[in-house]
User: What shape does this take?
Amino acid sequence: MAEMNGSRKHISISVPDQPDTMSPHIKSAEELRVIGFNLSDFSRTMQFAICVAGVFVFYLVYGYMQELIFSLEGFKPFGWYLTLVQFAFYSTFGLIELQFTQDKRKRIPWKTYMLIAFLTVGTMGLSNTSLGYLNYPTQIIFKCCKLIPVMIGGVFIQGKRYNFTDISAALCMSFGLIWFTLADSKVTPNFNFVGITLISMALCADAAIGNVQEKAMKLHNGSNSEMVLYSYSIGFVYILMGLFCTRGLSPAFVFCSQHPMQTYGYAFMLSLTGYFGISFVLALIKLFGALVAVTVTTGRKAMTMCLSFLIFSKPFTFHYIWSGLLVIIGIFLNIYSKNKDRIRLPSLRNVWNIIQKKTNKFTVPDGVDPILVFTSDMIEQSRHWMALTGHSAEAHL
Assistant: This one.
C-alpha cells in the first residue's frame, strides 16, 4: 500500500488455492507414473525395488548395446553418426510422450534450448566418439568423476570455496583416474590419449548441462518431455550440419546401410533403454532423494564394468581394481559431504579408542601362553552368552 499526492492506491495480490492448469509432469505426491505405469498403488519398499530394477535392467542393456555397436569391425570412426541416430530416436520418443500430455505449450525460450542442445551434443557426441579410442570400463570410470570439472568450474567461474571433504573426494577421484589411465595404457595395445581428451571434454559439458537444465525448468516450469523434444531436435540439426560440413555423413550412411541390424537396430535398443532408464532415475530421485539415486547409479556403473570384462574380451590388470576403489572412495566422500546431516560417521578419536580397547583386551603378559589366554576368554564369553539366553554349557558338551 503506497500513499501518493494525498491519495492512497491499494495493490492487492490474490493467490488461488489451486492452479487452474498444472503441468502434467508435476504430479501430486500421491501419484507417480514411470513410462506410463502408476507406482502409487505399491508399497514404499516395492516402489524402491521397481525403480532399482528399472535402473539396473535398462542401463545394463544400454551399456551392453553401446559396447556391442563399437565392437562391430569398422564402426569406430562413426561415433558422431551414432549420436545423430540417437538424437533422432530421442526426439521421436519425446514427441510421442508429449502427445499424451494435456499441456503441450513450449515454455522454455528458444535461446535456452539452443544452449542446452549444444551442451547435450557435446556430452553424448564426445562420449560416443571416445569409445573409438578407449576401453568401455575406462569411459565408465571417467563418467563417475563428474565432480572434478564441477568443482573446477565452481572455483574459477563462481568463486566457490569447498570444504576438506570435497577436496579429498576430488583428489581421490583424480588419483584414481590417473592410476586407471596408466594401467589402461600399459595393457591396451591401441591406447590413445585422444580418447582421454574426448571423454574429459564430454565430462565438462555434462557438468554444465545439469545446472542449465535445472535452472531453465525451474524458471519456466518446463516439462521433461518438452525438454527432451526440443533439446534433442535442435541437437539433431547441429550434428547433421556438422557431419555435412565435414563430409562424414555419406561414409557413415553407406556403412550403416550395409549393416542395418548391427547399427540402426542396436541404436534403437540403445536409445529406448536409455530413455526408459532416465525415467526410473528421475522417479528414484523424487521418491527417495538424490543420495539414494547416486548410490544406485554408482552400483550400476560398477556392475556394468564387471560385465564388460566378463562379456567382451579385453586385457585385465589388478590395477583396475585398486584405482576403481580409489574412485569409489571419492564418490562416497562426495555423497557424505552433501549429506552430513543424514550420514553419521564415527570420529577418528572414537575409532582409535575402539582399536585401543581391542588391542589391550588381548594383551598377553610375558611368560603366559597366548593360546591359553585366548581360549579362556572365549570360554568366558560363551558362559556369559549361555547365562543371558538361559542355556547351560553342559547341554552343548
Summary: The mean pLDDT is 75. The first strand starts at residue 2 and ends at 4.
